[in-house]
Automatic annotation (TrEMBL):
One GO MF term: 4 iron, 4 sulfur cluster binding
Coiled coil, from the record: none
Entry's EC annotation: 1.4.1.13
Enzyme superclass (EC): oxidoreductase
UniProt xrefs under PANTHER family: IRON-SULFUR-BINDING OXIDOREDUCTASE FADF-RELATED, IRON-SULFUR-BINDING OXIDOREDUCTASE FADF-RELATED-RELATED
Record-annotated membrane-spanning stretches: none
Pfam families: CCG, Fer4_17, Fer4_20, NAD_binding_8
Lineage of source species: Bacteria, Bacillati, Bacillota, Clostridia, Eubacteriales
NCBIfam families per the UniProt record, alphabetical: diclust_near_Sec (NF045663)
Name of the featured protein: Glutamate synthase [NADPH] small chain
Keywords from the UniProt entry: 4Fe-4S, Iron, Iron-sulfur, Metal-binding, Oxidoreductase
InterPro entries in alphabetical order: 4Fe4S_Fe-S-bd, 4Fe4S_Fe_S_CS, Cys_rich_dom, DPD_II, FAD/NAD-bd_sf, HdrC_iron-sulfur_subunit, Helical_ferredxn
Gene Ontology cellular component list: plasma membrane
Domain 4Fe-4S ferredoxin-type: 340-370
Amino acid sequence: MDLNKLLNRRELCIGDKPSACIAGCPLHMDVKAFIEEIQKGDFKKAYKIMSKKVPFARIIGSICDEPCKGVCPRNKLGGGINIHELERTAIELGFSSPKKSIPIPKNEKNVAVIGAGISGIVATFDLDKKGYQVTVYEKSDKIGGRLWSFQGEQLSKQTIEEELEIMNKDDITIKFNEFVDEEKLENILNTYDAVYIGTGTWEKDLKVNPQTFQVEDSSLFAGGRVVNKNDSVILSISSGRRAATSIDRYLQKTSLTAARENEGSYDTPLKLQLDDIETVEPIKRTSSVYNEKEAIEEAQRCLKCECSQCAKNCPHLRKYNTEPRKYIRQINHNENIVLGDHYANEMINSCTLCGLCGEVCPSNLDMKDIIQETRESMVEREKMPVSAHDFGLRDMEFSNSKHFSMVKNQPGYEKVKYMFYPGCQLPASSPEYIPEIYKYLMDNIKDGVGIMLGCCGAPADWAGRQDLVKKNMEDMKDKWEKAGKPTFILACSSCYRNFKKYIPDIKLISLWEVMDKYGIRKNNKTEKKKVLAVQDACSTRHNKEIHESIRSIADKLGYEIKELKFSKEKTKCCGYGGLVYFANREQSREFAKDRIGESNLDYLVYCAMCKDLFIDEGKKTFHILDLIYSNNLEEAGLRKVPSLSKRHENRALVKKKLLKEIWNEEMNDFKKDYGFKLNIPDNVQNQMEERLILLEDIEKAVDNAQKNKERFFNPENSHYLCRLRIGSVTYWVEYEKNENQIFVKDVYSHRMEVVEE
């Protein structure tokens, strides 16, 4: 896979982008961390966070004009957080005298700062910390400029003097009552390595023609007071800080502009979903400054802005405590460095590839496509664990074998215009409905309807096995062309997605659209107006026709539909997609539990696996076909989920029944008679489901043991232990024999191959 392209896509993730308050603050104070400490009642830590970014913190924190509040998303939900008031409280309750720092050795560069106003003293402060000898020229007899205009209720004279005391040090020279005109500026430029003009409207104050001196050209830098309608203090500070950075870069002979796009205030790309957030009014202070309780309550209003829509709504990302940016980094590490480690493999194979993350992401970053490409790359590099998808691929192989696969035209038609393709999971789960559906289609469509049984190849696609996908699709296309290129009528959403992806030439229509168009029998029409919540199959995410037809059918049958929060294009996966059901059963269950936990209503589905997985977790769930054909809805909504072995048997029985009822043809039973009868208790059957062991696997293992005497005998309990490797899996069976009865005691499987010498 293209790793450079992968890493570039990582930049679409805005999960690590700053909140609006941090981006809106010209100094980029970590407002979120500051507020979090106040929420905990730790005002000392809050003050330390503020003073780390804000120079002369007690002064600036008391008079800041808080542009951060103006961009706070809370403005739409009660009012922005009173950050400035919280700063004042942090100063009141959290200030402690700073520890003396070790002075940085000075370099040989000398910088002049003209004007000891707000931007001038900030530039001086920063340049001094960077190791430069700084000389300040101030036309008055004190530093601070308009800071002194705040003296009074907001600031005491003592606080201003104490904060500015840091400027009175040997490394900083301040020349008071020094007015700089054009002539003196020429001398200063010739004396110092760099000069910053930090006065207000500098061309007026210095009587300097701006055309004579180019700003930020050569060694001259100009900034100073930001003149706007708010006369912003914090922007003046930012101006001085940016000037200090420019001077440092100029003297270090590095780029003045590189990586400075987000200096000062800027609009963050971080987007928030505010739909579910309650409006909360600001806390009013009872005195000149918030007390501790008031400050904590106001801080609690903070939304803690972050983009977490994907992780918030995806059980997979939550389980692995990750987000797209981190996930992509792990994939890159797995591809480029480790080349397939256990943790990364498990994580990559635990995604259902449903695409919800891309739908809720403000940047439309879809991990589905990335993980699909990763799986294909792992297969190509032979780093994909065979065990992850072995069962799903064997299940697909069975569905495309003679036991289930077939293509037949409607009796009396040499050529048909339509071909019913039910997929492999619906016949496995609800085999009784397939003949009913086919008869319905033949009765309602006059141009002839054939039927094709098989698997569309979705398991191979999910497993990253493009070799198997290609083979399957070539076979499918060949059958379609030989049948006269009929329109496919599809009952399976995954089939719809797969055909559209790999054989776009085939014209597709869903069974539900056909039923909605031609009408359905009203035998099961309910009179109670039962309310159901619709679970849309994730593979129909952008198929409006299917969404609408399902709801229309339910309505015609007398049901009221209640939409789930996540439905249609934002629907969630049941946990089967991506073969997660086989690769990581625990993760699959978490998907199912997450989905059924959204509503107490009974669910209506049109995907066979959605029904089976939800019922398996105790949720009453109806397939749309239950509403149409079932004679006992209550039983259908909680019917026992067919075992993995039963699913194979059901597919074969569907083919057998169709051949008998429609074409009056007989089909040989696919079950082989091994000459013994298996007796398997419930607890062992449960183990078989958990360990993905089929009845036929046990039969083959026992048959091999009986015929070839490849078994161990335990004289203490008279049990036999045998093994047989089928494909990449070795199956072990512990059993007791009594004539032609085999009593199975235990079963397990593994991917390790036992080699005999």
